[in-house]
């Protein structure tokens, strides 16, 4: 029999990871993440203007997507003077997703044992 607490833990992890899944589910946000990853490799941060040029979207559209990424904890803003620059801040969120996957694997292995 599978422990109910294991399912409750998985439910909690799904709730914690839900904003990440929503943020990652959009191709535009995926491109923004990759653009920010490339900038991070080069030890840079990017502004809304930089990202607007890279994506060919309007500033309001880029800002909307950045807000979703920021709310999900995938990126973080860095204010320098009057400009806001963005950089990836995904490691903590990636750990939460890994924990969720590990929890699902734990539940699935318990199901196989029961069969």
- Indicate the proportion of strand residues: 5-15%
Strand arrangement in the largest pleated sheet: 1-3-2
For the termini, the CA-CA separation is 10 Å
Structural class: alpha+beta
Radius of gyration: 18 Å
In short:
This protein is α+β, with helices and mostly antiparallel strands and 115 residues long.
Please, could you describe this protein's structure?
The protein has helices spanning 4-24, 27-41, 48-55, 59-72, 91-114, and strands at residues 46-47, 75-80, 83-88. By secondary structure, the protein is α+β, with helices and mostly antiparallel strands. Strands 1-3-2 form a three-stranded antiparallel sheet. The radius of gyration is 18 Å and the shape is elongated. The N and C termini lie close together (10 Å).
Keywords:
elongated; three-stranded antiparallel β-sheet; alpha+beta; 115 residues
Could you outline the blueprint of secondary structure elements for this entry?
Elements: H1 4-24, H2 27-41, E1 46-47, H3 48-55, H4 59-72, E2 75-80, E3 83-88, H5 91-114
Antiparallel strand pairs: 1-3, 2-3
Helix pairs in contact: 1-4, 1-5, 3-4
